[in-house]
Amino acid sequence: LFPVAKNSVLTSVFGIAWEQVIHVHVWLGHVVLLVAALHMVCWWRVYDEQASFPGDIMQVPMWFPQNSPDCEQTGNNRHCFVEYHAMPGVYPNSDNFTIQLAFCSTICLFLLTGIFARFSVRRRNYELFYYLHHIFLVVFIVALLHAASSWYFLIAGLSLWFFDRCIRTYRRSGHWDVVDIRAVADGSVTRLELCPASRLPSKQSSPPSFKFCCGQYLYLNIPAVAPHEWHPFTISSAPSDGIVTCHIKAAPTGPLDSTFTGRLAILARELGDTPDRGQNLLVNVDGPYGAHVDPGQYKELLLLAGGIGVTPIHSIFREAKVLLRIGQARCRKIHLVWAVMTRTMLDPFLDTLQDALHDDLDGRLQISIYVDGERDLTAPVSGEKLTFHGVPFSVGRVNPEPHIKDLTPGQTSHVFVCGPPGLAATADLVSLQHGVSFHKEVFAF
After folding, report:
1. pLDDT bracket for residue 93 (50, 70, 90)
2. Which of 234, 249, 271 is closest to 342 using CA atoms?
3. Half-sphere exposure of 265 (CA within 13 A, CB side)
4. Which of 36, 245, 354, 414 could bridge to 237 as Cys pair (CB 3.0-4.6 Å)?
5. Contacts 24+ apart (CB under 8 A), 222-226
């Protein structure tokens, strides 16, 4: 439970985010299952030596050889086993039902956490995985019944988990206002603007009560879409914007109304352009979470994005632009490289792109856009550029290698990637070879 708590002193001390250590939780879970299995198998071996296997696995009262001094002296375990059934209750502590209870709960633990926690199941049915995973509470109670001294080993993890749940419940109790909700990018992306109820955009004379950093994300619950589901979405606005914005792309698999993001897109389309859209929409927020990037600490910063993976990068880019303009960043160059399937994916962030092209701060802001999913587009004649609402772009797949090698080697140059695994893997390898720092955003918890 130590690595699974979202609000943990351990992650704060080591400066890492919850999602970056969740794999440790998985490894420790495998170790627990292995140790539990070995514990059972070793005792089954003892039962077999005492001629009570497999009967003692499930029967209560059970024959337990240590409770019979006569059997230990004579060594006639088979005779004592028969004698026990003829005279039930003769041997003390043979009615210990917690052994059978522990066996049943362990089998359930193997099924519910070993099978339903697999990535293929977790990715398609997250709520099923999430609620079934709480079998650990039952297992802990059984462990306390089975071995009273086990609380020595359980109290630390359970306390941290309980503390984390209290913090998250408190955060979720806050009231938020929906400033705006609309469908963009031909309806495939929902733009959701939020603000704490006490900090409406028209009253921003003081800093907002909700603080976040570039690259962080929220858990959102929208009862009108799914009353019992919480989903993580990256904050695409910059901290200096004074508002919380999320751009949420509808999942491309299955019918549109079969997923949370699809139903949210349908809701945004239905609300249309009505002036009061979203004002009566209830949204619950938990966060922020995740590692953050300080765009002012690097001399050269390369931001690589693929598709909707641009959301954390957009936040970093906007904040870096503000810091550069007020002289609070040391960056000599910030290069945004974004690969999209279609030009319409640029729509939600056109204002940021156009502003950076209009004022590139003496060449310190650079933008490279790649469109690789439109078959009717052809590469222009040499010297010409294709544009979309004034934003130039190239046709074809992005190759991160030349952009990374354009950076000055050293830890003052940084590559931040959020996109498909292939893009991240290539950028990771080239960054290692070129000697620059590297970070990739993780979405698959």
Report:
1. low
2. 249
3. 20
4. 245
5. 222/264, 222/281, 222/282, 222/283, 222/284, 223/282, 223/284, 224/267, 224/281, 224/282, 225/260, 225/263, 225/264, 225/267, 226/260, 226/263
